[in-house]
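Continued from yesterday's entry.
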Amino acid sequence: MRKAYVAAGLAVALVAGLLAASRFIGTPVSSLQLAPRDLVRSVVATGRVEAPHRVELGAQMVASVVAVPVAEGQSVRAGEILIQLEADELSAAAREADLAVAQAQARLRQLQEVQRPVSGQAQRQAQATLDNARAQLQRQEDLFRRGYIGQAALDEARKAVALADAQLSAAQRQHDTTLAGGSDEAMATTALAQARAGAEAARARLQHATVTAPVAGTIIKRDVEPGDVVQPGKTLLVLSPSGETQLIVQFDEKNLGLLVVGQPALASADAFPDQRFAAEVISISPGVDVQRGSVEVKLRVPQPPAYLRQNMTVSVDVEVARRPHVLAVPLELVHEAEGRSPWVWVIEGGRTRQQAIQLGLRGGGQVEVTQGLRAGDEVTAGPAREGARVRASGASS
């Protein structure tokens, strides 16, 4: 029994000694020694990958689909065939139109190479006939004055001149129609132009049977199969053009005042969360989505990673503010951080002291201290009483 009392006394003495020692040495606490650092504030939201624009492709006529040589996700070159429609009738119409052009060209050549020289020769013959008739009339008039012929013969000679003159006028008018600017040539030229226009229209209709890629890009949607009968106005393929990649992100409208065009950002696809890539704010919607309480922001991706795909879900972290070389403390160490008089526990001379501070920029769980602390100060979470002796195990911020 005596030994038990002695052991109990020793235990009490040991506890008392430990308590006394703790008061003298101090309670061990974790602390943070402040040093200047860069503080960044960012806002985070989710969105999707999207090209600046998409091209919806379809047919311009009613026809059956012969072939669709592309698949979703396939990259295509500008001008590459995407859909081939049935075009036998259109091909025949194009050949017929080409023949009409050849016929009109032959008609114009015939006018220039045959009819024009022939009409010119006819005009010269008519002129010679008129000259001969006029000479004959002069001889008849001379004979009439001498009394060798009568009035009837003279009248016949005069009629011959009038007839030859009329024939020359007709030959001249006929020849004029074959010259440049003449009616026959104008008609032949017009017929050729009409035939060529018809051929162009026929070739254009034939081209409509082949749907090609207007620009290089990636097929992101295919809604057509061989054998389908397609109608004008229906979207059959959606093409995402190559080039700039954008992120379309919905930010909470409370962050609207923080966002500015040109701000840098880091993004990551949900499928590859550990691989982050750079982006930049290029557009902020002037309106707010009433249903979601959000504002649409577009970001440019200068160097999109190879794994990025259209409509991928992405997380975006936009840097909205930065303070270089400031003092910052973890927000969890600040008391009354949302009130008018925030403060922290500071270790000074081995004891805790309540220190009033003023706060600035917040970001990443840290808050800037604009007044009340200096570089080298140590802050701690407690114990929660003024003047408590502590033993700090400090770490630099």
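--- second protein ---
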Amino acid sequence: MEQEINTEELGDKIVRVLKTIYDPEIPVDIYELGLIYDVMVNTDSDVKILMTLTTPNCPVAESLPREVEERVKSLDLVKDCEVEITFDPPWTQDLMSEEAKLELGML
């Protein structure tokens, strides 16, 4: 019998991983920057992450989603991870957490 996974607990672990990934141009992690729009976990341990980039021609447009995918897949409970990039809605500084704004001297 397959073990029932706690999707909420797994979601928290995923968020902790996302907070270790930084935008190379901004000294703030991608979660606090507001680049992560949604993290979906199903009971099969498949993860889908909807994220954006600070700009469509972001220099890490290729590598950052791949890094997110690989880091999340490295979690024991995650079977698969798909990262989807969207620019709808476009990222703005309003999406940043208070912590990120403070870090960047915007408060």
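The two ends are 52 Å apart (CA to CA). The chain has three helices and three strands. Will compare against the first tomorrow.
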